[in-house]
Amino acid sequence: MRLPVLALAVLMTATPALAVLPGERLSDPRLEERARALSKDLRCMVCQNQAIDDSDAPLARDLRVLVRERLTAGDSDRQVIDFLVARYGEFVLLRPRFGWHTAVLWIAPLVFLVAGIAYLFVLVRRRRVAVVTAPLPLTDEEKARLEAALKP
Amino acid sequence: MMSPEVGHFALVLALALALVQSVVPIWGSRRGDTALMATASPVALGQFAFVTLSFVVLTYAYLVSDFSVENVFQNSHSTKPLIYKISGVWGNHEGSMVLWVVILTLFSALVAVFGRNLPLTLKANVLAVQGWITVAFLLFILKTSNPFARIIPAPMEGRDLNPLLQDVGLAIHPPLLYIGYVGFSMSFAFAVAALIDGKLDAAWARWVRPWTLVAWIFLTAGISMGSYWAYYELGWGGWWFWDPVENASLMPWLAGTALLHSAIVMEKREALKVWTVLLAILTFSLSLLGTFLVRSGVLTSVHAFAVDPERGVFILAILVVFIGGSLALYAWRAPTLKQGGLFAPVSREGALVLNNLFLTASCAAVFVGTLYPLALETLTGAKISVGPPFFNWTFGPLMVPLMLAMVFGPFLAWKRGDLAAVAQRLTLAFAAAILATLVTYAVTTGGPVLAPLFVGLAFYVIVGAILDVAERIQLFRAPAATSLARARGLPRAAWGAAVAHAGVGVMLLGIVGETAYKQETIVQMRPGESIAVAGYDITLQGLVPVEGPNYRDLVARLTVREGGVDAGMLEPAKRVYTARAMPTTEAALKTRGVSQLYVSPGDPGTDGSIALRFFYKPMVLLIWIGTLVMMFGGLLSLSDRRLRVGAPKPSARRVAATVQPAE
């Protein structure tokens, strides 16, 4: 069942392409750099959790080309992102925007940390009071005497 | 004899034994009946035997390509290489769940065999809790995921294993990961047993530590292996993607690392008892959650979960019962546990509390980032993505104070430490950090502004760990013979801590090198053309089709010259697995020291050219070498005689005696 080399090559051409193909790149290195930076924060929506910069999927390629078209047309980074969000929804952003719907997401780690620190702070203060008012611990000699007395 | 039904029946028998194990020993422990408690061990061994038998039968079906078993038909192929026939057993849902239970019962069996000097009640309770988990998972397999289901008539040929999984790295990744996940069930069982008993002392912590360490070492190995597999197999050169599946394994790792540290405080100072128990519960809960996330299909889509809810709902029920149940038990019983050992904020205990705070906060960040999109979609229908940029922004900053504090910790005295004095003893570490930062600034061009600072941080961590050992053995301060004697007498746990901490620094160095200083070149090349990448001259010799056992390759033959000298070949390939007609990308790597040249092939053009993506990744191997060093530290700590079962006491005293004169 050997396929000739040519058929193999054709078969492979039909398979997904490599991430960021040479042909897609912009001649202006500054614009290309911005395009790459943007691509890293944009999701290939048919892939699992992959940025369009890394993805081989045809859709990712379309998006990469689209980003470059917008940049060449003179859009700012912000405008490119707004354009893509308007077209594909916020799902396209790998870094979700801060808003009411994502407030919990962004703040939760910070709240957790601050609450932890606050809790420890209170604990330390309370314990300091406890240390001051606590009865003196037994000395080793006293402990030994106590243990001897308690033994049946 | 090896008929699949034997395997199925063995699972049913194991379930029956697991039911016995989950009721009888604990009943005995409540009534103080030693005979009932003593049933736990033989029953645990029996379960292990039956589950193993079932696993062997399934493996045999794969080895002989018995396609009348649906699981084999779906995931194997008669031409598949032997090793992938074996790894195919756990390369699918049903088989991997059987492996999960094999490991679970193995741990129960280990407690049964090696737990001779455990208090009988504790042993009975621990095995009973293990029994509950075993019952839940065996029921899950038998009810929803029977690996021995038959198809009639039997197909002639199988569908082959997903090609991405046909790789040595991924063959051993799941067992490692599962030993890690399931290993934490031991700390969980000990925690729940202690809550039931209401007894929690330093001896308990000493019992829990080795199990936690074993789980931690294997989980580290599993995550590290998975990361390296993704690096060379997925073909786009990343090593960590913050994918939910990865996060699912990272969360128990973070919690488990915290547990490892808080257990030290509990063992040495009887403090943080309640917190340690909670961490033990949380760590295993996160392991269960990881299993749920990966196995229920909820990650691919909330809808996929809703379409085939049977498995998902079952696992969700397991989650609710075990996490909810253990937390309820905790809320009820924890207040009765006595808190011990007071300490000042600046002390070894304080540093370990700080470690726990940052580790759990980072774990919370990963948790929220992983589950928030699912929650939001379920509640409002809005779809958002949470990807690497989010985690780099939330997780990253939490790691910096952790690493800063990590070096101070081992230097601080128990109960009350002296920060200024420690800082003075760390002068060399600070100097190394500043020097490394300055040198990096001077040597590198480009790269992010902060990168040299992180190189400095890495050196600070590594040198700090070395200083820790040097200080303890009084290197250069005492005569060499004394230092040597002290080095020999130094507890393995102290060695382990220093080595593991150094490993973190090594890993950080690799991460900074790879992310900040990698070079990338993307070209379309024709045979005969050359290109220069990071000091290498690479020539494409030609595109050659190659036939593999169950795939076809189109190999790009590249010759590499380094400074005019021949440096061998690079042979990346586009591969098609014939059974599934599935294409994959086989990257090629050339290692120089700890740096790598990485080539990933793209499409061949119609004119005989091919797109190639070259990376030069400086210091990239340090990422995985760092994790190896961490694991080695864990092993050292595990070999500490304190933790060894039945370690002869006199010899421990003798070591102490040889060290004493140096004081």
Give the chain pair forming the largest contact, with residue counts.
A-B, 52 and 56 residues
Q: What would you call the structural class of chain B?
A: alpha+beta
Distance between the termini of chain A: 89 Å
Largest sheet of chain B: 6 strands, antiparallel
Say how many strands of chain B there are: 10
Number of strands of chain A: 0
* Oligomer status: heterodimer
**Unreliable parts of chain A:** 1-18
Explain what this protein looks like in three dimensions.
The complex is a heterodimer of chains A (152) and B (663). Chain A folds into two domains: 5-97, Orthogonal Bundle (Helicase, Ruva Protein, domain 3); 101-150. Chain A has six helices and no strands. Chain A has helices spanning 5-13, 29-40, 58-72, 77-88, 103-133, 140-150. In chain A, helix 2 crosses helix 3. The relative contact order of chain A is 0.08. By secondary structure, chain B is of the alpha+beta class. Chain B is built from 22 helices and ten strands. Among the domains of chain B are: 426-517 and 622-662, no CATH class; 519-617. Classes of the chains: A mainly alpha (152), B alpha+beta (663). Chains A and B meet through helix 1 and helix 5 of A and helix 14, helix 15, strand 1 and strand 9 of B.
